[in-house]
Protein 1
Amino acid sequence: MAETVLELAKLISDSAETINKACTENGTSVPSLDAPFDPRTEAFRGHADVSIAVNTAISAAYQLIATLRPAPASIFQLATSFLHSSALRVAFEANVSRIIKEAGGKGLHIKDIAAKADLDPKKLVRILRFLATHHFFGEVEPDVFANNRLSSLLDIGKPLSEIQSNPITKYEGTSGLQAVLSLMLDDSHKASAYAWETLHDSKTAFSEEPAESAFSTYIGNGKTYWAWLEEPGNAKKEAAMSVGMGTGQTASADAINQGFDFKSLNENDHVVDIGGGIGNTALSIARGNSSVRITVQDRAAVIKDGIEKWKQSFPEALSSGRVTFQEGDFFAPQSIKDASVFILRHILHDWSDKYCLQILSHLRAAATPSTKLLVMDSIMHYVCADTANVSGGMKNDAPAPLLPNWGAAGAQLYIADLAMLMVHNAQERTLPDLRELLKRAGWKIVRVYPDEGGLGSHGTLGPQVEAVPI
Ligand SMILES: C[S@@+](CC[C@H](N)C(=O)[O-])C[C@H]1O[C@@H](n2cnc3c(N)ncnc32)[C@H](O)[C@@H]1O
């Protein structure tokens, strides 16, 4: 009964052939895991066949592991995966990648790494060895560690002295990836340990309240994540959140224009980005279209940061009045009544249906008959094949014997969904879920722009769902 194993191995070897052929044709190559990350080496993914082959190989490799590894070992690995987050956090907060880089990058003895980080070398070495065993850092000689492609991404690219002396502003001007990591590895990780207590307690089990999430159980003061971020002492986390929401963490600057045609809007059009953060989405739209008016609404603290950021990055858009920042609570009636496009990017996934209905109903009340609503969140795939096409064309098309949703290659979606559950008592939605939610607030889906890279991959912003008033 080794048939499945042979099929999985063949999928991997066929994928490797496809990748190799495309690289030869395009003059690219697959970057070595041993060398630090360099965005230019990602060029090999640009080919459509390569992206499918990569997903096939990842999905098949995970399925092969799950098939061949003794089941007790597999369950033990899964049950102890909290150790990955804990070990990664130690390496990240101790700036190990930076320390190694500043020493020349060839590798540094654990005693020197630990001295710079002010940690016990006998403990840190075990953390790094655990990570290196999972292809994160390399132990290049006994007790000597070097960065590799994965570990180098922990480095925020600023001198160690600057990182250590400016903990609040350290993520400014970075891609946002490390800012998100800092939040995930700290409070999201700790909050998720309270999932069972929160999901089965009769007080919180069926709750739709954001202040009754696993995160709220963990902090124990009945606050939402957003209210907690504003508390004194959390400035570092608020700053990380602002930077982390940047599109730069996973997407190219032009990714926003790969769905809805923002470039076709003119000076009579008005785009309103609700909960638009510090204006990262607005920046991509404004750069691609020099006439459309844009208003970014968010909480006061975020708006202040946004204005500061735009004074640096695009001051003329502010001074001309073409782009405006406005304090706005999306649970209050919407003040802008002439919107051509309302954008909700990564907003609905932060809230349960009860709260999403409030947000969507305020927008519906302020919409003109021609207003469009663009919802930009991940769309969840079923794990099984969607033969009845209830997902409206969202692909669940991995070849057998792979899981139809591409298994581990698409895991990012399910990670995002559970992170929303733990932190906000919220969720990512399937297309039928979203269609029903929008309908209840008076909106109808007219078009879905799929995530062209698929599976939330590098360089894309995920799908865009366009709705109009019913
Ligand atoms: C996940 S972030 C998304 C930011 C932005 N749309 C993006 O895609 O980068 C959610 C945003 O909702 C904002 N927010 C939370 N509660 C809000 C409220 N009641 N009214 C307006 N904005 C709010 C947060 O400050 C944050 O900027």
Protein 2
Amino acid sequence: MQRRLGLILSLTFIMILSLDPQQVLATMSSTNYQISWDSVGVGGSDTASSATYRLRDSLNFLAGDASSTSYQLSTGYRAGVYDRVADFSVVSQLRSSAVAALSATSTTVTVTSTAGFSVGDYIVVVANEGEAQIAEMGQITLISSPIITVDAFNGAGPSIDGSNDLVYRLSGSALNLGTMTAAAVSTTIIGWEVTADVAQGYSVYVMEDQDLRNADLIAISDVSDGTVSVGVGEYGAKSSDLTLASSTFDSVDTALTSSLQQVASRDNNSFSTRDFLTLKVAPSTTQATGSYTQTLSLIYVGDY
Ligand SMILES: [Ca+2]
Ligand SMILES: [Ca+2]
Ligand SMILES: [Ca+2]
């Protein structure tokens, strides 16, 4: 094996001398980075053209794979080409799209009207909207009024009895909590989908630009006791991902802060994995009136 490796390197060296290319050094890593592949430049492009000619060329590379217990070697033309895919899309609950849900199965929900819903839309089914609501997210694959079918829900399928159960479309980036009152917990949902060809997985993090506050800078306090309750004057969120390593969004209502906090994670390659954050707001009986706003940022990070 050593003889073969030596042959490859010496041939490469000859090409470097004759073509005077940019030289790139070897594959390397440390505790905080990894360069999986690099290449030795051999000069020129593999395509060239003008008004009167077109050329496709490549140098004649040695090709093949070799390995032992301690190394792996692939050689050949573009042997290291591997375009990693990471796709992250965020959608928010569209308050104006609400329709009542009458019943549900593991992949369907029967509604009072399918107007405004289309195949491909993301929806969230909210059972018993409010303080103790349970929501599930899916993507519409079929509409046969009054039944909406999704590809899959996050959970086993919504538990619907037709009382205070709603379906919303998830679309766009604006969240609207409507008119809040001290007599109820107002809720809204931010959903996201990740496709990541990353072997170690990914995390999604959330941060706020400021507390949820009005023009007089009066805020609705961050929840601190794990539960957003009616009339208390507190604000927090909970994730649909129930296995978070570095935050409490998986288990209790948690305060949004200006620091990045984990709200979803996977530990291997992911295809169209979804999660959502349920925001819960409970103004106090003495809460100042006004329009309360903030900007939330969601960030995808691949784990390399
Ligand atoms: Ca219900
Ligand atoms: Ca806050
Ligand atoms: Ca509380």
